[in-house]
Amino acid sequence: MPAHEIIVVDNNSTDNTRELVQKFIDEHPESHVILTRQTAAQGLIPTRNFGLDMATGDILARIDADCMIKPNWVEAATLFFDSHPDVAGATGPVCYYDMPLPPVGQFFDSLVREKQYSADGMPLLFGSNMAMRKSAWEAIRPVVCADVEDVFHEDIDCSLHLFEQGLKTQYCTEMVTGASARRMGTAHDSFRAYMQRFQTTFNAHPGHSRGGYPERTLLRLYPLLNTMYHVYGAWCSIFRVDTPELLWKSYRKRAHLD
């Protein structure tokens, strides 16, 4: 199932992103890709808001720049929202294509995010893999935090604002996204600062009960994850392995066996 539209928001990029996207549009005019530009402010949140405000669909989906959705993602999300009319937002599993044994990583990702990555008894939306109804976005748009100091997890901020509006989120196992584990490859101080964003975001939204503290688990596992990321990256570089392509090959193989 094709997407109703795919909005690419250029936020003052200095590489050849615009040229690549325009080339794709010229070669695939039927793909409904829209290339636009947001220059008023630099940063993820104003750029995210610009794109979501521009979207015309009933369901608004958002992924990160390092993500690839599974080929049936749009269909899976559409069917999920159609069959769950009381749900305002959904998130799903993330498979880290630049870590060894991606399906194993997806299994543990699902365990953590279904059990610990939650608040008020509901899953938090995850920026690499999230969708919400347009009506839900319109309800929280006036109150989502601008985070000018860039210290929040903006996807958690969105989730908490949904909960404050009495709206419901749910985990959809069929919405699978491939993402980079590049954060695992950063220096320890940088990784710790990124993990601190969890508590900083919740501190700005008092009154919510946390389902768990995934940042603590990740910090304990950091030495192992950092080593795995760099060793696997070196191995892939030596043998010229295209890790995203390898991920989807494994999915296609499993789908064929099923």
From TrEMBL:
Report keywords, A-Z.
Transferase
Gene Ontology MF terms: transferase activity
What top-level branch of life does the organism fall under?
Answer: Bacteria
Q: Where does the Glycosyltransferase 2-like domain start and stop, copy by copy?
A: 4-138
Q: Where is the signal peptide?
A: none
Q: Which PANTHER family match?
A: GLYCOSYLTRANSFERASE, GLYCOSYLTRANSFERASE 2-LIKE DOMAIN-CONTAINING PROTEIN
Protein name (Swiss-Prot/TrEMBL): Glycosyl transferase
Source organism per UniProt: Alloscardovia macacae
